[in-house]
Amino acid sequence: MPEESTWRSVFRNDLFKGKVALVSGGGTGIGKSIVIELASLGATVVISSRNEEKCHKAADELNALGFSGKVAAGPSTNIRKEEDIQKLISHVVERYGALDILVNNAGGQFISDSADISKRGFQAVVETNLQGTFLMCREAFNQYMRDNGGSIVNITIGNRNGMPGMMHSAAARAGVENMTASLCVEWIESKVRINCVRPGIIFTESGFENYGPAGEYFLEKIVPSLPAKRLGSAEEVSSAVVWLLCEGAGYVTGSVICVDGGGSYVALPLVEIEDKTNLPTYGYLPMKAKL
Ligand SMILES: CCCCCCCCC/C=C/C(=O)SCCNC(=O)CCNC(=O)[C@H](O)C(C)(C)COP(=O)(O)OP(=O)(O)OC[C@H]1O[C@@H](n2cnc3c(N)ncnc32)[C@H](O)[C@@H]1OP(=O)(O)O
Ligand SMILES: NC(=O)C1=CN([C@@H]2O[C@H](COP(=O)(O)OP(=O)(O)OC[C@H]3O[C@@H](n4cnc5c(N)ncnc54)[C@H](OP(=O)(O)O)[C@@H]3O)[C@@H](O)[C@H]2O)C=CC1
């Protein structure tokens, strides 16, 4: 047991006191839950997304709940646009004097068979999730973290077994995870740590609203196949994010934490596959039809 005078748990209320954080997509769902954690632990948090009004509403709501003044909406930002990102990062650095923490949570996709995804559709998803995350990281590094250090978490998606029906997003997020592996080495000299959190299926009203009946399919078909037998909560994601961001994770960089109730380790029925043998067999022993 360490001496009492030197003992201090990493889990304490002022963990992020004096820190300035930026959470993209922080006005809704998982992002909002990350904002609540960071502000509760003392950080000043800027949130941004395309819909500025939504971010102002969320900031007002959270400040009224007791985070008085700790949460602020930044300018409207589409992470598909480089100039929006440059303006957002300079806004944070100029107005708050720092950018210690960046959470790249903004992202999304539509559900589609891969054969039906147009070039524009594929580009839109890659620009949002891979290019957008890269440009946010690059600007945060160039405008602040290169000289001052910092911590970055990128939110990805449960893509270990691919993701039939959301191929474009799973591929883009795999790119984010590999980019993270490169950046963690390139930027360690600047004392920048960068990690990913890979959520499985997390219930957020905002997220599921996008999917209509496809969202219902997820709930009905996939949940019973999940080892945890339930969806995850936004709070279960945000608690992993704040741990990665905090000083207690000081030796963790380039890693990916799965928050998925074990979903990565089973084959999920993400698409219906017709019950007939349609892959031709190569071999000499006669096989029974169903084996
Ligand atoms: C453990 C394991 C767990 C495994 C299981 C894991 C489950 C994961 C569950 C994940 C949940 C979430 O991510 S929840 C988060 C959900 N939230 C979101 O997705 C919101 C953000 N998404 C978006 O904004 C959109 O999806 C995105 C495509 C990125 C941008 O859309 P925009 O309309 O702005 O794009 P545009 O530039 O106007 O359109 C470009 C083209 O995109 C295509 N396109 C856009 N929307 C389309 C649509 N609904 N259906 C078809 N095609 C579409 C068209 O081809 C468009 O071209 P034209 O036709 O020529 O115009
Ligand atoms: N819920 C789930 O099961 C899972 C979610 N994820 C990922 O977690 C993140 C949060 O999802 P969740 O909270 O569920 O859903 P939300 O729809 O609430 O979150 C997505 C956020 O991203 C913002 N956003 C989307 N596109 C852009 C853009 N081009 N520029 C700037 N902001 C953008 C949205 O705001 P606005 O529309 O105002 O721009 C919104 O606030 C997303 O990246 C999602 O893909 C990953 C795995 C599973």
UniProtKB/TrEMBL annotation:
Top-rank lineage group of the source organism: Eukaryota
Catalytic reaction annotation: (2E)-octenoyl-CoA + NADPH + H(+) = octanoyl-CoA + NADP(+); a (2E)-enoyl-CoA + NADPH + H(+) = a 2,3-saturated acyl-CoA + NADP(+); (2E)-tetradecenoyl-CoA + NADPH + H(+) = tetradecanoyl-CoA + NADP(+); (2E)-dodecenoyl-CoA + NADPH + H(+) = dodecanoyl-CoA + NADP(+)
Keywords, ordered alphabetically: Fatty acid biosynthesis, Fatty acid metabolism, Lipid biosynthesis, Lipid metabolism, NADP, Oxidoreductase, Peroxisome, Phosphoprotein
Gene3D superfamilies: NAD(P)-binding Rossmann-like Domain
GO cellular component: peroxisome
Pathway named in the protein's UniProt entry: Lipid metabolism
Example GO BP: phytol metabolic process
Principal subcellular localization: other
SUPFAM superfamilies attached to this UniProt entry: NAD(P)-binding Rossmann-fold domains
InterPro entries named among the record's database cross-references: NAD(P)-bd_dom_sf, Peroxisomal_t2-enoyl-CoA_red, SDR_fam
The UniProt record lists the keyword Phosphoprotein: yes
Location in the cell: Peroxisome
Annotated GO MF terms: trans-2-enoyl-CoA reductase (NADPH) activity
Enzyme Commission identifier(s): 1.3.1.38
Family annotation (PANTHER family): PEROXISOMAL TRANS-2-ENOYL-COA REDUCTASE
Protein name: Peroxisomal trans-2-enoyl-CoA reductase
Subunit structure: Interacts with PEX5, probably required to target it into peroxisomes.
Role according to the record: Participates in chain elongation of fatty acids. Catalyzes the reduction of trans-2-enoyl-CoAs of varying chain lengths from 6:1 to 16:1, having maximum activity with 10:1 CoA. Has no 2,4-dienoyl-CoA reductase activity.
